[in-house]
Design goal:
By secondary structure, the chain is mostly helical. It has five helices and two strands. The chain has a two-stranded antiparallel sheet. It is globular. 52% of the residues lie in helices and 7% in strands. It has one domain.
C-alpha cells in the first residue's frame, strides 16, 4: 500500500530538491532544468512516520537511478545518510522517528507556509546567482 501524497509533500519535495540545487546527493548528476521525473526527494525513514516525514534531515535529492539503488539496498541507503548527515544527526533522526506526532490541519497549513517561504527564498538566491547546496530548516 502506498502512502498518499498531499500538497505539503509536494512542496517539501520541491524544497529538498532546490536546497540540493537539483543535484543528486549520491552521484552528483545535475538537473539544470529543475524539473522532470528523473530527480526525486528520497526519504530515509518511511513517510508513514509523521515525526520525520517533513524533516529535512530525513530527505535527500537523488536521481532516479540512485534512488532505485538505495531503495533496493538498505545498507547503501544508511551509508549515504551517514555521509550526508554525520553520525550525530543520523542518530538524532532515528530517535525522532520514535516520537508519536500527529499534525492537525492547522499545523500542516503552517508547515506549508514555512516550506513555501523557504522555497521562494532559495529560488531568489538562485536567481541572484548563488549555486550549490542551501540550508533547508525544519518546521519544528
Amino acid at each position: 500500500m502506498s502512502i498518499k501524497r498531499d500538497s505539503l509533500d509536494g512542496l517539501f519535495s520541491d524544497a529538498v530538491r532546490e536546497a540540493a540545487d537539483w543535484t543528486c546527493q549520491r552521484c552528483g548528476r545535475q538537473f539544470p532544468d529543475r524539473k522532470g521525473k528523473d530527480v526525486h526527494c528520497s526519504h530515509f525513514i518511511s513517510r508513514k512516520f509523521s515525526s520525520t516525514r517533513w524533516h529535512p534531515d530525513n530527505a535527500v535529492c537523488l536521481c532516479a537511478t540512485c534512488h532505485a539503488l538505495v531503495t533496493d539496498d538498505p545498507y547503501e541507503h544508511a551509508e549515504l545518510m551517514l555521509k550526508v548527515l554525520g553520525p550525530v544527526r543520523l542518530g538524532w533522526l532515528k530517535e525522532r522517528k520514535q516520537r508519536i506526532v500527529r499534525y492537525r490541519a492547522d499545523d500542516k497549513k503552517a508547515m506549508r507556509a514555512h516550506f513555501r517561504m523557504q522555497l521562494e527564498d532559495m529560488q531568489d538566491a538562485r536567481e541572484a546567482g548563488i549555486t550549490g547546496p542551501l540550508e533547508l530548516t525544519a518546521y519544528d
